[in-house]
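Note to self: the last two entries modelled the partners one at a time, which told us nothing about the interface. This time every component goes in together.
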Amino acid sequence: MPSLNAQAKHPVSITLNGRTRMGHASPRMLLSDFLRHELGAHGTKVGCEHGVCGACTIRLDEVAARACLTLAVQADGHRVDTVEGLAPEGRMTALQDAFNRHHALQCGFCTAGILMSLSDYLERVPKPTETELRDMLSGHLCRCTGYAGIVRAVMDVTGQTSGNADAEDASGRKEPVHV
Amino acid sequence: MTALTKAPSEIAPAAGAPASAALIGQPIPRLEDAAILTGQARYTDDLPVKPGTLHAAILRSPHAHAEILGIDVQAACAMKGVSAVVTGEDAKRFAAPFLVGVRAQMEHWCLAVDRVRYAGEPVAVVLADDRYLAEDALDRIEVRYRPLPVVMSIDQALSGDGEPLHPAVGSNIVNTRPFSYGDVNAALKAAEHRISATVHYPRNSCTPMECFVVMADYDRADGAYEVLSNFSGPFAIHPVMAKALKVPGSKLRLKLPPNSGGSFGNKQAVFPYIVIMGVCARVAGRPVKWVEDRLEHLMAATSATARRTDLEAAVSGDGRILGLRMEQTDDVGAYLRAPEPASLYRNHGNLTGAYRIPALDVVNRLAVTNKTPTGLNRGFGGGQLYFAIERLMHRIAVTLGLDPLDVIRRNLVPAAEMPYTTASGGILDSGDFQAAVEAAIADGGLDDLKTRRDRARAEGRLYGIGYAAIVEPSISNMGYITTVLTADERRKAGPKNGAQASATVSVDPTGGVTVTVASAPQGQGHRTVLSQVVADVFGLRLGDIAVNTEFDTAKDAWSIAAGNYSSRFAGAVAGTAHIAATRLRDKLAKLAASQLNVTPEDIRFAGGRVFAAGNPDNSLSFSRVAAAGHWSPGTLPDGTEAALRETAFWTPPPLKAPTESDVINSSACYGFVFDICAVEIDPVTAQVRIDKYVTMHDAGRILNPLMVEGQILGAFAHAVGTALYEEYAYGSDGRFLSGTFADYLVPTACEVPVPLMLHRESPSPFTPLGAKGVGEGNSMSTPVCIANAVADALGLEISTLPLTPARIAALIEKPEVAKPAGMAAVPSKAPATAGGRGLRGEGSRTVPASPEQVWAILLDPKELAALLPGCDALDLAGPNAYRAEVVVGIGPVRARYVAEVELTDLDPPRALTLSGRGSSALGFGEGSGHVTLEAAADGTRVVYRYDAAVGGKVAAVGGRMLDSATRMLIGQFFDRLIARAGGPAAVETSPSLLTRLLRLLGLRP
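The predicted structure of the combined assembly is written out below.
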């Protein structure tokens, strides 16, 4: 790794959602701050800045990563994908659409991170069991939904139902798994 | 009874509700989601800042209680990029202490003046060109403190021991208020049984994912503040902020953003920071921005009150409660911060819960402790209240050998008595509690659960079932808080009551409809529900309604009850929007009537058309009528105002001020919640597993079932955390111990099951749409329901939360067997003294040099500096006394400590004591190590014993790592000493734990 002058700002160039974006960052600047405040990509949220809550999750070279635990200079020359890039031309993906139908978000502050983790995870595990899915989601904190709608949305979009889903109401929601 | 996920429910229209409601009651997915899901939604920290904005970082007290002897900001001010450092001196110049809700001499300044009273209290603010530079400068502020004894529990405050936090008050019980409703003494004397319980509710918080954000500016010409913040209300706090800034309310313009990342009440507590940043903007003469970080939020933002409740009930042989005596003591933290003591009074009208208890005596006390001030938190006061009441119900059943369900059934308020006035004045507005309970038992499958319990117990497993029945108050009476004052004090202050909501609906020349409300949505779906309500009134589609969720005190209609709290949206805010829309519709009907040659009463609105009731072909498009209101006001009938904009204010009729006898209806509506919980406890790990959870709600008329179930699921998840995991933990010396999400355990997707949700709808007679609040019920009912299930499983009393494995293990496990002989001793924790986290340990190492050589190294400042990890140089400060700068990293934080190091008890070349104390922006640390040197065959055996204490941020975030980090630092010291003395070079063969951790966190290459 090259040695950088700690006191100086350095040019950082990333491929953000398919486009080259350039900005400047001091070596200690977090990737989350660089995205949000240097490039104006506010879709990525910051919830704890110590790597637990998952709100800032982005994809770095296609792998889900915490932007708050990554330095901007580490991303120089790399591909970064954020929530803004999920729905090109404004058409929501099936997953985003399922989040809406299943009321998988309320305040929405954790949502971008969860979507980015899922976009990576579902490429690798296209049909997770509910247990596998919940295990993966445990890397994200949501204070609004109790995770129920998130689980329902993913089970729906992966062509599975979460449990004994024989009933479906007007909004197309499936019956949740009751404990 | 219906499960909304199975079938849409029959909705009985409430009085005044439109008969042909098309959208209200439908499970319509949210309109706000698309912007959030695509990353377009704007939260406060995403909004643009003015050019030249300074970024703030706050220096916080590492001590829970200390005098401030002096603050030196010179070095910080001299740093690159720093514009100003603001302290309590500036607060004294430009601000006033906050108003306090009781008569007691307690001064609470936005920045500490003379004394700090909780760990994390703001002491100074650095304003710099960016946040990184501001945080750098925090390290350079030197504050000298004189630590004071701390008060860390309600019981300590009650005992009268300990230093008064506010000397002018003289006691840490700052308010005591007795209330008497009916003859409880007579009931107790006459009763067959007297059953009592004492419970303790812990401090916890809902911790929204978005922390506080404040952007403030000061206009010198106008002497006015302008602030943008994710404040949530209640706007009764606005006058508190304005008075603290010493301006009239009109000179504190407060704007709220379009989106907020959750609140659950907590965002109320941003208000002291609005005042701080106002002062900062004024001092710096530039706009300022502050974004709270998670450690700050956990440590110092706000908390639910901890509460001790003592209950004694007069109980008949069959389990009916004839009279209840309760003493409640709330720990409100270091200051009674507005709107406290609301936690203690919010439920005053429903202290007897869902039960018919004819006589009630109450003593309410407020205790101050050296902890973070408390405030709004989902369930506000209800979790505390029902933890006591529903534990008592369970206890009555166990004591009398009754089925807990029968005790609940016999005490529930009968449906025939609705609306029912409670002993303390609450008016339970509607519902059939018995029917709801029976439906939950049948549809929730209680019989199956009992079979499972029997089977589990037969196999020797720990399985239990618990219940809770509560009323869920919504739409707070702004007068309830004055119940803390005596009737005499209230007479002097003037009556306070009501819960005014406001909404504005306007129609533009193209027929577009815009709705604004005095609320601050944090994810509840205001845009969707308001669109449903207003679209129905005008016969339009959802997409025709634009709901603007930004808010501006300088331009929007509001009053003190405005804001998003006390579950007031569905009942009050949506209802008020309905009133405003209906008024505007009536005006449009007049406009249309003159053009269609019918009377306004015959005008109908549907499908985007305005038409005559008897002849739908005689019609105009909605937009045509709207255009007429703008383009041809002259065509209006005489006396009709043309403006197509209506603002409605509405207050719930039953909300009066407290009476002379302290009777108060504290909320406009009371929903009903009945829960059944089955748990199994692992006898080995002591983990509680929720096997099944059933929650029955009657929240009046349901406006959108998706939103209602979302609220229930969210409150349930919070409650699982409250019951099993979450607690703001403090050391006995006031140190805050849960400063990260790795320490404050929020439930993840693996811990939160999906409850079975059941619903009934008994419309409230008191709200415009018949709706009641629903977002807090499970925060009140679920913690105690889980506790009752655990008590049933263990056959033991449960008197506090959270029910962590450690707590359960202490109840069920036998004493640990003794450690096998020969096992290495683990350093024991020293009792924390002098305000720190106690660390203690001992050990020995052999150094390949003679005792004299080792001694010479230790006594040479240059040599010693090279041995101390993180130390660059020691400056001589006296004989064998040095001053040093030491950089220490624990977990995710690193701190530059300014330390005083001293060598004492010198017994050359045999023994010495090395002691040091230091402080930094991250806290303080002190310790001493006694070292003896013994000549050995292969050099010198160095034996050491140390005691250390660490406080402040390092203790809060790195508590779990302190012991190992200390051992590692000592290890490094000896590695260097051995290397210096000529032994094997202290080359790290594998990276240390700390290095690995820092690498993991990206702080080390």
